[in-house]
From TrEMBL:
The keyword Hydrolase applies. It is found in: Secreted. It catalyses: adenosine + H2O + H(+) = inosine + NH4(+). It comes from Periophthalmus magnuspinnatus. GO terms for cellular component: extracellular space. CDD domains: ADGF (cd01321). PANTHER family: ADENOSINE DEAMINASE. Residues 193-488 form the Adenosine deaminase domain. InterPro entries: A_deaminase_dom (IPR001365), A_deaminase_N (IPR013659), ADGF (IPR006331), Ado/ade_deaminase (IPR006330), Metal_Hydrolase (IPR032466). Coiled coil: none annotated. This is adenosine deaminase. Residues 30-95 form the Adenosine/AMP deaminase N-terminal domain. One of its GO terms (biological process) is inosine biosynthetic process.
Length: 502
């Protein structure tokens, strides 16, 4: 200690004597340069900002500082508890107003808020409900009393049930609980991944009876696009299994019919909202299916893509990766397009897991081997340097869905999300919401907030947001001419957003 102090005193004297910083102390200018170089690697780090953008950027920085020094920091909390705080956050309010480009990872069964499903759809005539043995519900529209099914012995007309029950508000709340994961006490209700996934799949099945009713489907798609539009989103790529839809008399429509409805409703929506570009479908098969069933779906998807090239973007395999079949398991089905000389772009979910080294954990590399166009979640990519390198080199974006990853319990504090690395090194990245109605979100703003404030940290800036929004267009499946058109439309809105907020 004594020796050290003497040395310190001595070197201070030396410094004074030299009159300036010298050996031992790194050159501050070089340090500045390194910090700048490093920052330039992050998402949006090379974006040059206009004077107006710089002004908004420093305002945003101040707001973020305040948010980070508050006692409760939303990205560190469970989203269900953080949601009211986020709603009051000035950063969030700015993000809401920001034109965010495209939503590239949303599932069709969860694109509209459950509030609307319950308050609007279940109030329509001829809606029957049944309570299942495993504490879930089924809905069915029918012009006569439905027959009992294996999962549903007793169907009740909802209108009559509501009339009998005194408190319709409480009843409706209980219905909503069946259709969403959202709850006041997530830590207690969802102690682990298995429990939360079980509830997740139940909610999907419960909603299906409402959504796949043909007249509801039209309103549902329109409403879903509207929710995105109100959140300043201009284009959607929707994962959908194109479920069969049914009429009141039991008539069943096939996938082509459903696809045509999607096309018609989208066209109608664009007519009503000319500053919305449109929507396309990524046809999805569930990983619970067998290889031959997936082969059938792949062949169908190839045909549908040929017949509806404007609407069908490609193909994906969905469902929980951790207890489902791997991409490699489906290799024969997934090689069909190449074998048949057909083009069917893939948009695989891959690496939505914490189980490093498991078979499931190989999905990312397999997705890349099958030439995926984007990687859904890619949560495990940090464990796979080679896959990360490949995805970067081939410009294959990771679809980051922060709230989904947290609610489904891959990570709790979003500052620890592996995408912190991806954002720091400017890996191709887009932000999406996965299953908005199940998580109690709407549009992309909540997920943008989490990515910007939690994952990006203090160094993520307006350039980061701008790049993420523009990425959503760049990495979309749109042909170049439409990409350019969408980018121009978006840029016009972006400039307006800057002008109004700086
Ligand atoms: C239900 O939604 C449809 C379509 O969005 C709308 O036309 C209708 O007015 C709504 N009904 C109620 C009761 O809110
Ligand atoms: C992926 O792309 C590479 C290079 O274009 C090609 O050689 C390969 O056959 C493709 N693989 C599949 C499964 O389509
Ligand atoms: Zn998903």
């Amino acid at each position: 200690m004594f020796v050290w102090q003497r040395w310190a005193v001595a070197s201070c004297v030396t410094l004074l004597w030299l009159g300036r910083v010298s050996f031992g102390v790194p050159d501050p200018a070089r340090r500045e340069q390194l910090l700048r170089d490093e920052a330039s690697r992050q998402t949006g780090g090379k974006m040059s900002l206009s004077i107006a953008e710089q002004k908004l950027n420093s305002h945003l920085h101040k707001l973020k500082l305040q948010e980070m020094s508050a006692t409760k920091f939303p990205p560190a909390m469970h989203f269900f508890s953080a949601k009211p705080l986020i709603q009051n956050s000035p950063v969030y309010k700015l993000i809401q107003k920001m034109p965010k480009g495209a939503a590239l990872h949303i599932h069709s069964t969860s694109m509209v808020s459950v509030e609307w499903l319950v308050k609007n759809v279940t109030y329509r005539p001829h809606c029957y409900i049944c309570f299942t043995w495993d504490n879930s519900v089924r809905f069915l529209f029918s012009d006569k009393q439905p027959f009992p099914r294996w999962d549903c012995l007793y169907w009740q007309l909802l209108e009559a049930l509501r009339a009998r029950i005194g408190d319709p508000t409480r009843f409706d709340d209980s219905l909503m609980q069946h259709l969403t994961l959202f709850t006041e006490d997530p830590e207690r209700e969802y102690p682990n991944q298995n429990v939360v996934w079980e509830k997740f799949e139940k909610a999907f099945i419960a909603a299906a009876g409402l959504i796949t009713h043909a007249p509801v489907l039209r309103d549902y798609i329109y409403k879903g696009l509207e929710e995105l539009y109100y959140d300043n989103i201009m284009y959607l790529e929707l994962r959908s299994g194109l479920s069969r839809t049914y009429e009141l008399d039991g008539t069943i429509h096939d996938k082509v019919w459903t696809l045509k409805v999607f096309q018609e409703v989208t066209q109608m929506f664009v007519q009503d909202h000319p500053d919305f570009l449109g929507a396309r479908i990524i046809i999805s098969a569930h990983r619970a299916l067998g290889v031959s069933e997936v082969k059938t779906v792949v062949k169908e998807a190839i045909q549908l893509q040929k017949d509806f090239p404007d609407v069908v973007a490609g193909f994906d395999i969905v469902g929980r990766e951790d207890d489902g079949r791997t991409l490699w398991f489906f290799r024969e089905a997934l090689s069909l397009p190449a074998q048949l000389g057909a083009t069917l772009p893939f948009f695989f979910h891959a690496g939505e897991t914490d189980d490093e080294g498991s078979d499931v954990d190989q999905n990312i590399l397999d997705a890349l081997l099958f030439n995926t166009s984007r990687i859904g979640h890619g949560y495990a990519i940090a464990h796979h340097p080679l896959a990360k390198e490949l995805s970067r080199k081939r410009n294959i974006a990771v679809e980051l869905c922060p709230i989904s990853n947290q609610v489904l319990k891959l990570v709790s504090d979003l500052r620890n999300h592996p995408a912190v690395v991806l954002m720091s090194e400017g890996h191709p990245l887009v932000i999406s919401s996965d299953d908005p109605s199940l998580f109690g979100t709407s549009g992309l703003s909540y997920d943008f907030y989490q990515a910007f404030v939690g994952i990006g940290g203090l160094k993520a800036n307006l350039g980061t947001l701008k790049e993420l929004a523009s990425n959503s267009i760049r990495y979309s499946s749109l042909p170049t001419n439409l990409k350019n058109k969408l980018h121009d439309m978006w840029l016009e809105k972006w400039d307006l957003f800057i002008a109004n907020n700086s």
